[in-house]
Amino acid sequence: MNTYAVYFKPLGALATWPLTSDTLFGAVCWGIRELGLMSDQQLTEWLEMQKEAPLFAFSHAFPYYRQAKVYLRLYPRPATFQPEINDFYTLALEWKKTKSGMTLKAAQVDTAAAGKKFKRIQYVSEIVFHQIAGGNLRPLAGLKAMLSDSGQYISKAGALWTVPEAGSLPERPEKLYETEAMQHNQIDRMSGGTVESMLFYRNETFFAPNAGLWALLRADEKDISQYIRPALSYLADTGLGADRTSGKGQFEISLEAAPALPVVNKPSGMMTLSHYLPHAGELSSLRKPLAYTLKMLHPKREQRYTTLPQENQKSAPVYKRSIRVFEPGSVFPFVNPKDVFGRLARLTPPEQEAIYQSGAALMVYLQVEM
Q: Is the whole model's pTM more than 0.85, yes or no?
């Protein structure tokens, strides 16, 4: 399989955050269907055929900042890149020496506050990620960056960067993106006016100038040219996520060569960049390294095409079956390399139309201390 980078240059706000790997997978399948590249039956058979061995997979869409023609890409912070108790004590001793008259207790309080800031870091820059993957950067260095800006690394725009990278970021705005609750009002279709006391809020994500999203895509060239590239072009016209008809989720989408991923001679772990649903025997939970975050998904059905009520049901079902997946950044013991890990899961009963959830995942290999 070939690996590509998909860039999403925002043309406005995004009403679905984050833009996940399964959302991108489903949107491409929707595009294939809408363009008539496959009929409903053919698409169902295609997905059923690849349930245990997916033919393509996306990563989540992560933030980037573009300066001139150079992309500063972000990756999720590995779950194993987390300070230990000894790191806090070591840093407290070092911090105490730099401050005249500071007690050890005061230094420990400052270090604990730095640890809370470190925990909120979601992303790391591409250079930092390569250093972590190769085992050349310990969490202590990241913890120091939360306490002082005088080291080799710095916390900025919600991520951990090297100092030269951070120097390329804009001073204002301070964030690459920001999610805000936007006020809306319900409309009475009969009177054509707003409904009193029926305000509601929806989150919308706004991007800084020259900032956007990017994702990795892995697939065979034949599927790229025949299905995925046309579907992405279609999505560039129609939008992604919620509230597309009101102008949300509009992007310029481009498919380019993928950046170099970390090359690790003797990997001990692997980190998912996608929502990951392993199939039986794909990984072991009894070995190390193992650090993960689980998320319960309970997706809604597409509102555009409602499902007829089934027997003993008064109304059409709104939600699909819930399912639990691993979040990006989760780290697992290394197994034999594969192009695509995970599987697809069917979220509807056999008597209803087939709806699949993508748990297909892209992995990056790491050298993790155990």
A: yes
**C-alpha to C-alpha distance for 325 and 50, rounded to whole angstroms:** 18
Structure tokens that stand for 100 in this block = 């005249």
Residue partners of 83: CB distance under 8 A and separation at least 6? 115, 118, 139, 140, 142, 143
Which residue, 240, 244, 269, is CA-closest to 329? 269
68: exposed, middle or buried (Cβ count in 10 Å: 0-12, 13-18, 19+): exposed
Q: How far is CA 129 from CA 88, 338, 364, in A?
A: 22, 21, 10
Cα radius of gyration (the chain): 23
Query: Average pLDDT for residues 141-167, to the nearest whole number?
Result: 89
Half-sphere exposure of 314 (CA within 13 A, CB side): 0
Chain segment 303-312, per-residue pLDDT in tens: 555 555 556 6
268/284 Cα distance (integer angstroms): 13
Interval 334-367: pLDDT, tens: 988 899 999 999 988 887 788 899 999 999 999 9
Q: Residue 352 CA to chain centroid, in angstroms? A: 30
Identify any residues that bridge with 76 across adjacent strands, giving them in sequence order: 123
Distance CA 191, CA 9 (A): 39
Q: In the structure, how many helices (H) and strands (E) does the chain have?
A: 9, 18
